[in-house]
Amino acid sequence: MVIKHWVNTYPHTIYVSVSLIDSKITGWKVGQYKMDCNSSHYGDGEIKYTEFIVNNEQEHDNVFSNLAHKWFKQWKIAKDYKGFKPY
User: Fold this and answer.
1) Is the peptide bond before 86 cis (omega within 30 degrees of 0)?
2) Is the Cβ–Cβ distance between 42 and 16 less than 8 Å?
3) Could you say which of 4, 12, 42, 75 has the lowest number of CB atoms within 10 Å?
4) What are phi and psi of 4, to 5 degrees?
5) From CA 47, how far away is CA 17, in angstroms rounded?
6) What is the pLDDT of residues 29-81, one digit of tens each?
7) What residue numbers bound the domain in which 54 lies?
8) Is residue 87 included in any domain, yes or no?
């Protein structure tokens, strides 16, 4: 029996999450799960997220290439941010 990967099963939900300190991005994530507020990997601070329910491959790709970037832009990136920036 072959089990389909969540990406190939529609509809599915994509979560876009940020960790914020002083309203600045210290960490971010886009994927199947919301950011874990207990994970030190994303730093201490407030966690915010939004979700997108996608019904096909085009909608899925649009979240990763367009919608997530737009959502992240409502906050500035922290000066001491390390890693790949969300936009």
Assistant:
1) no
2) no
3) 4
4) -70, 140
5) 7
6) 999 999 876 655 555 689 999 999 999 999 999 999 999 999 999 999 999 99
7) 11-77
8) no
